[in-house]
Amino acid sequence: MRAMSIPAPDPSQRLKITEIFLSLQGESSRVGWPTIFIRLTGCPLRCGYCDSAYAFYGGEWHTFDQILDQVRSLGARHICVTGGEPLAQKNCTELMRRLCDEGYQVSLETSGSIDVSKVDVRVSRVVDIKTPGSGEVTRNRWENLPLLNAQDEIKFVLCGREDYDWAKQIIVEHQIEGRSPILFSPSQDQLDPRALADWIVADRLNVRFQLQLHKVLWGNVAGK
Ligand SMILES: C[S@@+](CC[C@H](N)C(=O)[O-])C[C@H]1O[C@@H](n2cnc3c(N)ncnc32)[C@H](O)[C@@H]1O
Ligand SMILES: Nc1nc2[nH]cc(C(=O)O)c2c(=O)[nH]1
Ligand code: SF4
Ligand SMILES: [Mg+2]
């Protein structure tokens, strides 16, 4: 009898994944929806405040079929693709297309350092603008901003008053207002949320204040 050989997994149909879990969306305008998180491994940046540094290394290869099976078994309708930096793995774009084809509401959290133009139009792109306080301000890919639309979001994670003043200036310089909703979030344990709230109100700034809801509920733990 001839031995059956198992075909090797197609390298274009797999991703290195740190975790897949179900929680409540804690960030962006989709905050509060039960959401399945797909956290991809690896990031070329090193933001000083990063709460997901455990995703820089390790992880396991998953085929698209394995990911889709796990997502189906978790049962929610919203999916957030995050990391690490999800777009650092080129197959990520194809996975998101497959998830949209299956009818999921997909959002992407990205550092804004990598081209977002190839992301499926059905995906809501939440693009961080890295501030001076993050330590990664030189990595911003400014060409991303004109590509964004009303279903995307532009986010600033602020480390202090200097970052806040810088962000206000960037909004004017890059004419961001009216393009996509703008989110201002305090870097956890670095900027007092109440101070940021007071600055926004005092300036009548047309931005949306954000707190990471999952940390209010569960603290800073992986898988939540
Ligand atoms: C962990 S990152 C992963 C996606 C992508 N690499 C990015 O930076 O957008 C997801 C979001 O968490 C934010 N974040 C990370 N650490 C944070 C902290 N200590 N406080 C507030 N937001 C934080 C990031 O700025 C980003 O908007
Ligand atoms: N609950 C919850 N909501 C989130 N939204 C974005 C997250 C992220 O780490 O990118 C995240 C996360 O880690 N947990
Ligand atoms: S880009 Fe995102 S994952 Fe990478 S270090 Fe910064 S916050 Fe963390
Ligand atoms: Mg997180």
TrEMBL record:
<feature type="binding site">
    <location>
        <position position="50"/>
    </location>
    <ligand>
        <name>[4Fe-4S] cluster</name>
    </ligand>
</feature>
<dbReference type="GO" id="GO:0016840">
    <property type="term" value="F:carbon-nitrogen lyase activity"/>
</dbReference>
<dbReference type="InterPro" id="IPR027621">
    <property type="entry name" value="rSAM_QueE_gams"/>
</dbReference>
<dbReference type="GO" id="GO:0000287">
    <property type="term" value="F:magnesium ion binding"/>
</dbReference>
<feature type="binding site">
    <location>
        <position position="39"/>
    </location>
    <ligand>
        <name>substrate</name>
    </ligand>
</feature>
<dbReference type="InterPro" id="IPR013785">
    <property type="entry name" value="Aldolase_TIM"/>
</dbReference>
<keyword id="KW-0408">Iron</keyword>
<feature type="binding site">
    <location>
        <begin position="49"/>
        <end position="51"/>
    </location>
    <ligand>
        <name>S-adenosyl-L-methionine</name>
    </ligand>
</feature>
<feature type="binding site">
    <location>
        <position position="82"/>
    </location>
    <ligand>
        <name>substrate</name>
    </ligand>
</feature>
<comment type="pathway">
    <text>Purine metabolism; 7-cyano-7-deazaguanine biosynthesis.</text>
</comment>
<dbReference type="GO" id="GO:1904047">
    <property type="term" value="F:S-adenosyl-L-methionine binding"/>
</dbReference>
<feature type="binding site">
    <location>
        <begin position="24"/>
        <end position="26"/>
    </location>
    <ligand>
        <name>substrate</name>
    </ligand>
</feature>
<dbReference type="InterPro" id="IPR007197">
    <property type="entry name" value="rSAM"/>
</dbReference>
<comment type="function">
    <text>Catalyzes the complex heterocyclic radical-mediated conversion of 6-carboxy-5,6,7,8-tetrahydropterin (CPH4) to 7-carboxy-7-deazaguanine (CDG), a step common to the biosynthetic pathways of all 7-deazapurine-containing compounds.</text>
</comment>
<keyword id="KW-0411">Iron-sulfur</keyword>
<comment type="subunit">
    <text>Homodimer.</text>
</comment>
<dbReference type="InterPro" id="IPR024924">
    <property type="entry name" value="7-CO-7-deazaguanine_synth-like"/>
</dbReference>
<keyword id="KW-0671">Queuosine biosynthesis</keyword>
<feature type="binding site">
    <location>
        <position position="84"/>
    </location>
    <ligand>
        <name>S-adenosyl-L-methionine</name>
    </ligand>
</feature>
<feature type="binding site">
    <location>
        <position position="43"/>
    </location>
    <ligand>
        <name>[4Fe-4S] cluster</name>
    </ligand>
</feature>
<keyword id="KW-0456">Lyase</keyword>
<dbReference type="Pfam" id="PF04055">
    <property type="entry name" value="Radical_SAM"/>
</dbReference>
<protein>
    <recommendedName>
        <fullName>7-carboxy-7-deazaguanine synthase</fullName>
        <ecNumber>4.3.99.3</ecNumber>
    </recommendedName>
</protein>
<dbReference type="GO" id="GO:0008616">
    <property type="term" value="P:tRNA queuosine(34) biosynthetic process"/>
</dbReference>
<comment type="similarity">
    <text>Belongs to the radical SAM superfamily. 7-carboxy-7-deazaguanine synthase family.</text>
</comment>
<feature type="domain" description="Radical SAM core">
    <location>
        <begin position="30"/>
        <end position="220"/>
    </location>
</feature>
<keyword id="KW-0004">4Fe-4S</keyword>
<keyword id="KW-0949">S-adenosyl-L-methionine</keyword>
<dbReference type="InterPro" id="IPR058240">
    <property type="entry name" value="rSAM_sf"/>
</dbReference>
<keyword id="KW-0460">Magnesium</keyword>
<dbReference type="GO" id="GO:0051539">
    <property type="term" value="F:4 iron, 4 sulfur cluster binding"/>
</dbReference>
<keyword id="KW-0479">Metal-binding</keyword>
<feature type="binding site">
    <location>
        <position position="52"/>
    </location>
    <ligand>
        <name>Mg(2+)</name>
    </ligand>
</feature>
<feature type="binding site">
    <location>
        <position position="47"/>
    </location>
    <ligand>
        <name>[4Fe-4S] cluster</name>
    </ligand>
</feature>
